[in-house]
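Obj.: predict assembly geometry.
Materials: sequence records (below).
Method: joint structure prediction, all chains together.
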Amino acid sequence: MSDVTQLLQAIDGGDPRASAELLPLVYSELRKLASQRLAQERSGQTLQATALVHEAYLRLVGPAELDQQWHSRGHFFAAAAEAMRRILVESARRKQRVRHGGELRRVDFDEQLQISNESCVDLLALNELLDRLATEEPKVAEVVKLRYFAGLTIEETAQALQLSVRTVNRHWAFGRAWLYERMS
Amino acid sequence: MPSDLPSVKAIFDQALEIENNVERSAYLDKVCGGVPEVRRRVDALLAAYANAGDFLEEPVAELLPTAAAGPASNQVGETIGPYKLLQQIGEGGMGTVYMAEQTEPIARKVALKIIKPGMDSRHVIARFEAERQALALMDHPNIAKMLDAGTTDAGRPYFVMELVKGISVIQYCDERRLDPRERLELFITVCQAVQHAHQKGIIHRDLKPSNVLVADYDDRPVAKIIDFGVAKAVGQQLVERTLFTEFGQVIGTVEYMSPEQAKLNQLDIDTRTDIYSLGVLLYELLAGETPFDKQRLRSAAFDEMLRIIREEEPVAPSSRLSTSQSLPSIAANRHLEPKKLATVVRGDLDWIVMKSMEKDRARRYQTATGLAEDLHRYLTDQPVEARRPTRAYRLKKFIRRNKLGVLAAAAVLAALAIGLVASTFFAATASREANRATAALVQAEINGKKAEGVNNFLTEEVFGLADPNHNKRAGMALVEALDIAAGKIDEKFPDDPTLRAEIRQRFGEIYSGIDQSSKAVEQLRKAVDLRESLAGHLDPATMKCQTALGLALFKASHWNESQKILESVWANQTRVLGAGSADGTETACYLAVVCLELRGGPAAWSTFPPENDRDLEVSRQGYEAALARLGPRRVETLKIENELGWVMRWRGQFKEASGYAKEAADGLRELKGTDDPDALFARYNYAACLGELKSFDDAAAEFRQVLAARTRLLGPTHFDTICTAWQLGMALRNAGKNDDALKVIMQVHDQLGEIRRQKTPLRAEKMLGFAADCRDLKEFRIGGDFLDSAEEMASAAPDDENQHRMYARLLNDIAWEMTRFPRDPTDFVPRAVKLATKACELSSYKNATFLRTLAEACEIAGDQDGAAHAQEVLKGLPQSPDAKQ
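Observations (raw structure tokens):
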């Protein structure tokens, strides 16, 4: 059994320190994976953030536990989604810093569309809003993070958070509406 | 707010369940009752929900794009920097031009061009700055002075130029009804101005009537070319992009674009591009129309339009005239009878125009002066050159045909110089012509034999030949010859330590070039020692030698020592030679590569902190210093610019990376030719950037070119060739061309027999990457072969202790990959166990990751005891296993 698996079980057992230990582990694994992937210089593709998250899971927890313990898997993905959010936001910040000499500026949707047809969301703005959403509706924010940063399906999200599919659907609808209203 | 009122969220949830609008509204009326604030919030959320489309539905895809731009237009009266906008005087594909007033430091009126949004201002300005000195050197009455460039508050680049009052050259000639002779005289002054710019190293890239303005001075027409430096700074991409509006309508000018510019990724622009545009301009001045019908070009699809420019031969101006329906008015504008006009143009002028517009630029006039002189010949009734078959062209061909012979001869001579009888090598590579050339060269060399001479020769000729980047076969044959010769250096030159140092250094560099890294290190260490004892460690030649040693160490995977040496040499070179010296820039190039490797490459498996920014610092500082001191059009500057692009690409800043890479690739090709290894390297980098930017088709096209060149120069099994092939395969796959991709992958696969003989960890790691990609593609059989090769290539442990950690990690990764492959057709699991065990042994069972791989492999193999044992050891390790490796 891996350390991460142990941590996941400890979280399940209600040990609050375990969560705190899990995040840096997952974070460093993701960063490492990302840099290795880039270093391998393969293909022209950009890194798929959610694919990284899933690969990190395989590496840290292993396939043996793949089909069981969905709720402890949920802890993992919660940590991974948070870690991925931090990595992405960091990189967005760094870029903004480089580009504007320290001055943060919102990025036009249209401008981003020229570069990438996907991922045309202003991450920094989304990040701030997500923090605000978390203070109002913490569960909704969790759902958004799992869906958007870890790429979980509605069903997986439901299992991970131990909620019903119906509830997740509601949270998801509310979260999207709430964020969309503020971002548009 | 009443305490029993449900939350906004609860009301929203409930409202969404009610599909009927009337009912929903009734529900909201009821539940929100007298609290309009809540009702407003819920309504806003429902509206947002209805409009959200697929907002956030796609998970975040990647590690980020972007560029930013400000609002779309500037206003007359607005102030930009020290300039006040007075009046808009023009608008084109690239931007808007204003007449503006400058008050500081002197009061004058200027033309200010604001570039359209859609690109990175920093980059535009950087490129402008790079060319600024050269632009400042241009001083010609027919060129409008470029005064300044900057960024508006909204983040858009702008250029400030001498204000030219005048109208386009075509409009002027037509309005004044200039006859052909007057037109040619005016045109010749334009050619002379372009020539002046070319001599200062500036290419216009966007010559067209609206950039050649004419006004009367003292009753004589005077032409002025504007916008020098703009197209280069803005970059071709924008030119391309601004050709089209979002409706696919062409708004820019394509009629004057040269065939080499009409390639989707033109890396290869030189002064002859301007000659082509001048040819088109001349065509229009004479025939009244551009060579390709404007309507036809504009209505053609983008690809088709480019194809026309690249491939179609235009009709000669005189034929165009005789078929033109507007002939009467065209002739009238030229003050001639229609019949007379066609006669004037037919013959010499046809020849001259068509020669300027040759598709193959080697057949155009090579200089603007050449064109002007031929026109002058026409005007003075001398025979024009355009009619004669070009002897220079044939001579050039002849030299190219014989180049290999010349090089082989040089190698033989060098071998003779150090007392080596190299008849076998000679027989293997040289031809009869080479024999003759050798005889002459040997004679010349014997007459003036000096240590310096030998050294120069070795550097320029043998090194060029032996480097497999230049010639594969000769490179192979030379290894053995070099080994023998290296053993004789002390014996041959007992009294001349300086010469010994030089020869050892060259040998080291040659070994390094043909991937004999440990031999290279050995020779270079000796050379450095010798030089240090002779001239001290701050002597420029010693430092250069140390740089070579640093590079060789890097190639031999001694990353840490390599970094240490290069850091100290770079610092010393900066101190002794000043910042941005050619030598220092070269050192910075290698240092940046080493730091990048240490941060993100295989070496990162060792000790370097991942957050380290040294790679970026070194490449940026190095580039800026080189730019300031050496200028933009120097091989050293371009090489470090490419490194900067490379570093940026690895950091995910693809847009900027691609700008640097493209410029470097462009410049290196211009200076060193298409097949130059550095130029290919930069082009590879650019192609990779295109892939990152998701221009997969363009990336594939570039990779294909690089692949063709590398296959030709290095052979199909050279590591660089294979990496390129793989990149091409992946780009094709990403472009959705799976069949083509598989074809390329299979070609690499076909070479595996040869490839797997190259038993080094780095190469094994590449094969591992290939295997993982095949797993992604679900091509398990092919992937299995790559995996198999990776294992075999990793079978020899490196001698060097420094590399053991990396080696263990490699074995672990191979093992890990093996556990991911299905057990049919090849069962890798038992081998995975073996490799993971070995990785654990090499790390004395202290690495948690390796232990985990081992446990997993054992478990899949059904070896419960083994798995339990590994877990047991794992538990005994100190905590936080993955945080530090």
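Conclusions so far: The CA atoms of residues 51 and 151 of chain A lie 8 Å apart.
To do: check interface contacts against the pulldown list.
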